[in-house]
Design brief:
The chain has about 120 residues and is mainly α. About 75% of the residues lie in helices and about 0% in strands. The chain starts with a helix and ends with a helix. The model has no long low-confidence stretch (mean pLDDT about 90).
Length: about 120
């Protein structure tokens, strides 16, 4: 991947991450039980992503895990949890740092955005 393309992906993912961090409803996690559930979800997603289950070799999709996190915690916490999982997977050597932003956009932000839009659409119907 070209270094300029990696910088664009990293910048876009950083922007989405900062927006999610800014709009995260922290007051919803006042008790320790909710925090434990979020941390257990992050660990579970990390294990799921480490299995490298996917459609084809090299094409790993984790839509269901991110959909579950979105429905359980909302889009803000799902972005933060997915970012932590992606960081752990990349730190483990299963992803490249230059493509971290693009991986975040495609494996975290896209499933969260689709899940959130479908949820809002069904709530309106």
């Amino acid at each position: 991947m070209l270094p300029g393309l990696g910088a664009i992906g990293n910048s876009a993912f950083l922007l989405v991450f900062l927006v999610a961090l800014r709009w995260t409803p922290w007051r919803h996690f006042g008790n320790s039980e909710d925090t434990h559930v979020l941390m257990a979800t992050i660990v579970s997603l990390l294990l799921l992503w480490s299995l490298e289950a996917g459609v084809a070799p090299g094409l790993n999709l984790h839509l269901l895990g991110m959909t579950l996190a979105t429905l359980m915690f909302g889009w803000q916490f799902a972005i933060l949890a997915g970012s932590a999982v992606l960081f752990g997977v990349t730190l483990n050597g299963e992803g490249g740092w230059i493509s971290f932003g693009w991986n975040g956009l495609l494996q975290v932000c896209l499933p969260v955005a689709v899940s959130w839009r479908v949820l809002k659409w069904t709530e309106r119907r």
